[in-house]
Amino acid sequence: MVDYFNGRIFLQPNEIPKDWVNILPDLPSSMTPLINPMDGKPAPPEMAFAIFPKECVMQEVSQEPRVPIPKMLREIFASTYRPSPLHRALRLEKELGIEGDDIKIFYKNESLSPTGSHKPNTAITQAYYAKKEGTKELVTETGAGQWGSGLAYGCNLFNLKCTVYMVRASFFQKPGRKILMRSFNADVHASPSKLTESGNSFLERDPEHPGSLGIAISEALEHSMRSDIIKYSLGSVVNFVLLHQTIIGQETKIQLAKVGIEEPDILIGCMGGGSNFAGLMIPFAIDKLNGKSPNMEIIGVEPRACPSVCKGDYRWDYGDSSMKGPIVKMHTLGHSFIPSPIHAGGLRYHGMAPIISILHNNRVINATMHHQTAVIGAGIQFAKAEGILPAPEAAHAVKEAIDQALIAKENNEKKVILFNLSGHGFFDLLAYKEYMTGNLKDYELPTQEIQKTLASEEMPVIDESQF
Amino acid sequence: MVDYFNGRIFLQPNEIPKDWVNILPDLPSSMTPLINPMDGKPAPPEMAFAIFPKECVMQEVSQEPRVPIPKMLREIFASTYRPSPLHRALRLEKELGIEGDDIKIFYKNESLSPTGSHKPNTAITQAYYAKKEGTKELVTETGAGQWGSGLAYGCNLFNLKCTVYMVRASFFQKPGRKILMRSFNADVHASPSKLTESGNSFLERDPEHPGSLGIAISEALEHSMRSDIIKYSLGSVVNFVLLHQTIIGQETKIQLAKVGIEEPDILIGCMGGGSNFAGLMIPFAIDKLNGKSPNMEIIGVEPRACPSVCKGDYRWDYGDSSMKGPIVKMHTLGHSFIPSPIHAGGLRYHGMAPIISILHNNRVINATMHHQTAVIGAGIQFAKAEGILPAPEAAHAVKEAIDQALIAKENNEKKVILFNLSGHGFFDLLAYKEYMTGNLKDYELPTQEIQKTLASEEMPVIDESQF
Questions:
Q1: Is the model's pLDDT at B85 over the cut of 80?
Q2: What is the ipTM metric for this complex?
Q3: Nearest-CA residue of chain B relative to A385?
Q4: Closest Cβ–Cβ partner in A10, A156, A384 for B185
Q5: Nearest CA-CA partner of B199 in B214, B182, B178, B188
Q6: Which residues of B281-291 are buried (b: 16+ CB within 10 A; e: fewer)?
Q7: pTM of the complete model
Q8: Of the N and C termini of chain A, which has fewer Cβ atoms inside 10 Å?
Q9: How high is the pLDDT of residue B192?
Q10: Three-class SS of residue B6?
Q11: Which residues of A touch B (CB under 8 A)?
């Protein structure tokens, strides 16, 4: 019989990692700067300082291989939800017919945080720095609300005001996370709102405008510009957010060592903007870049409805659809790309984190994609086996992990497969209901149509010789 | 500054208690038997064996002070969600102005289980025994779905079929937990259903009958009678369920010892049928009964809308409203009592566990009650301070803990206050929304009306000289 006592690997609060790890100094090609959309030049630090907490701006360009996690932050993690457990998926292995020790499936469980995902790892951190620097308010955008509720939670810990512009369609259709944000004291507005010029301009055209993440970003940015004591907060894509998430991979390494595993063979995460995937894999990717485990496969999983890396171009593009935010070099489907309404709202972003884009270009990581029906099916299979209902985003990683395990079984290979369970699905039950009643739809744009959109967009032209 | 590293007290999986503790041999007055409603006599073991797993029936009447937790069960707890953390509510203390070490508030966090409450503690256990005894299916009733989802989870772990009769009003108004149960493979039916005679008889009278817990119990019992390989499962009230929940209090004792506390001064839990409250307090109540900490206060908290202990009679009554299930001596508001539609669905039961009733009669424990507006207000205060949104049931314990802390502060007393956070509120966000929008109503029946109902009911007359 399987020894279920080994099914969950715990760490003590005093084992929380003391550093985040920074991949910038190890990148195989150099990081591109954020570009000011007004003049096409690298955004000067003072511009970034006006938008983000200062410490985050410094981290965005830091070349230090390790960045210390402040003691107070480590204490807060210890008193709330970290370290998170690493599970061996023993029951899933049994279900897949791979009992024994040839093929092992592990998952890092980020679903136990107070808002049910990995988002508080950076939300608390950004709120901590903002508070320290005298900021009184953080403002952000949110789609379905995973990030918004994470930031509401983080700000509340430090008595910072939190303002969230929430995509109008979600604001009314998914009230759950809105209520959660408000219980954490946040001001939540349906976007487009009447509170900003950009919001008003969209409402004038259509008083019932359903909103979009791009519009909400524009509103949040405009809101943040009003005062020196308001800063803007981002939940993914940029380097400092990915840095904060490396606590996930750092803990995972310690946990694997406790069961005698140095490196997994296959590392998997879902990617929207890229933060949970990067958080898990960066510490391992650095090893791979330094020649330690050259055969380790690192796989990012996208929805077929929004395949930024799998089908997008690597080019300069606007981070938001209103073309007001910074310009970024990344994999993108184009800033005017409107993804189909899949349930994994957190993966509906047109671009991808520059760090992930660079790693993919240099074949350090791979990308793959799945349809949501297969993904939610894998989510149910996982729930039945492991007892945790994954968020639709996280179910993308589950699907790929199951596929990889079955391939290894077919080929009689020994593999250690590890994926990030980035969040639970308690707020996404509709996806499961639609699956069970046969009403879940799949979406995929033909590649040539994606290319047509990209070709038709007025993309910024950046003179790369300037940096 | 507060040392937040001490804010959460962890146990390792190998520290899971090896025994449940049984209060029956220590009770100050003897336990009354379950009575067969057909003849008014104590239900013979063979009758109970036909309904419940055999091992549970043995535990129901066991006089052993400690009952070993089977190794396999301990392994399953270890590989899923136990031990659960004990938190010091440092931020709540700060918020209440009781910083320092004179008044300490702790809470045991049962909200991290896969279904978000303490229910799996007994669900997994009952499924384990059922499986071992060759049972193929467990059937039960559920209101809002906390218990149903717990049992669905437990059965799924052992590949047992699970059938749940869910109160029709909740079935349609609260789809979330229904979907969760179905992802764990359970068959969920709206009750009254056409699948049973009792269900049909209610539907004939009213095809749109909203259902009740009493009707759902009748349907589940009828369903369980159909075959020897189907057993009925209960989520509260009876002795063996309370026994299984003592793992909560057993862990709490070990955790308190780690921070140098032998016994809390005040122990608090909410009570519907009584299982989460009993699970926390029984190990401490045994100490109190044995003279170890005579001044410890143990407080059960009821909703004012359903105050079985605070305002009910201690008498023989039917456990279900259809008068088909066993007759129990307990605090009751009468089997025809229909509680007002408060959000704490798990506290809307007309009776109370016999063990708790006896402890209350003997002044080992106290009972108190609160209105739901005050309760949900305390829940939000707790969420803002501690970052966890409590279930409306658990918020009753939060409210009382806050009140007790403020009383101690007023009186300059030193107190260690500890309560059970029995579940999270992610499936109960409507309660919080109504509170925030000022739409939450309070309900309370005048005592004389409760007495009038009790007097009007045809209560069973039991000859106590027979046992």
A1: yes
A2: 0.91
A3: B157
A4: A384
A5: B214
A6: bbbbbbbbbee
A7: 0.94
A8: N
A9: 94
A10: helix
A11: 3-8, 10, 12-14, 72, 75-76, 78-80, 87, 90-91, 112, 114, 116, 153, 156-157, 175-176, 179-180, 182-185, 380, 383-384, 387-389, 426-427, 429, 432-433, 436
Phi, psi (deg, nearest 5) at residue B276: -75, -35
Q: Residue B383: helix, strand or coil by DSSP?
A: helix
Domains of chain B with bracketed CATH: 9-15+69-116+240-466 (3.40.50.1100), 117-238 (3.40.50.1100)
> pLDDT tens for residues B421-433?
999 999 999 999 9
pLDDT per residue over B168-199, tens digit each?
A: 988 988 888 999 999 999 999 999 999 999 99
Of A349, A346, A427, A429, residue with least CA distance to A181: A427
Q: What's the rounded mean pLDDT across residues B360-370?
A: 97
Residue B2 predicted with pLDDT over 50: no
Partners of residue B388 in chain A, C-beta under 8 Å:
114
Query: Which residue is closest to B10 within chain A, CA to CA?
Result: A12
* Angle, CA A81 vertex, CA B122 and CA B262 arms, to 5°: 65
| Per-residue pLDDT at A317 exceeds 50 | yes
Alpha carbon distance A331, A354 (integer Å): 8
Residues 6+ apart with CB under 8 A from B84: B108, B109, B110, B112, B113, B248, B251
Two structure tokens written together for B31:
């336990």
Task: Please answer whether residues A408 and A415 qualify as being in contact, where contact means their C-beta atoms are separated by less than 8 angstroms.
Answer: yes
Which of the four pLDDT bands, split at 50, 70 and 90, describes residue A6?
low
The string of pLDDT tens digits covering residues B194-237 is 999 999 999 999 999 888 888 898 899 999 999 999 999 999 99
User: Phi then psi for A318, rounded to 5 degrees?
Assistant: -75, 140
For CA atoms B387, B392, B397, B402, the dihedral sign is positive
A-to-B residue pairs, Cβ atoms closer than 8 angstroms: 120
HEC sequence for A25-47: HHCCCCCCCCECCCCCCECCHHH
**To the nearest whole angstrom, how far is the Cα of A13 from the nearest Cα of chain B?**
7
pLDDT at A1: 35
Name the residue of chain B whose CA is nearest to A16's CA. Answer: B5
Segment B242-283, tens digit of pLDDT: 999 999 999 999 999 999 999 999 999 999 999 999 999 999
d(CA A323, CA A212): 13
Please give the Cα distance from A316 to A332 (Å, whole number): 8
* Helix (H), strand (E) at residue A367: strand A366-370
Closest CA to B15 of B112, B113, B84: B84
Chain A: closest CA distance from residue B380 (Å): 6
What is the pLDDT at residue A460? 80
Percent of chain A whose pLDDT exceeds 70:
99
Burial of A111 (0-12, 13-18, 19+ CB in 10 A): buried
Contacts of A3 in chain B (CB under 8 A): 75
Looking from the CA of B434 toward its CB, the CA atoms found within 13 Å total 16
- Rounded distance between C-alpha atoms, residue A424 and residue B111, angstroms: 14
Tokens representing A128 are: 């901590």
Low-confidence winner among A97-101, A117-121, B134-138 (lowest mean pLDDT): A97-101
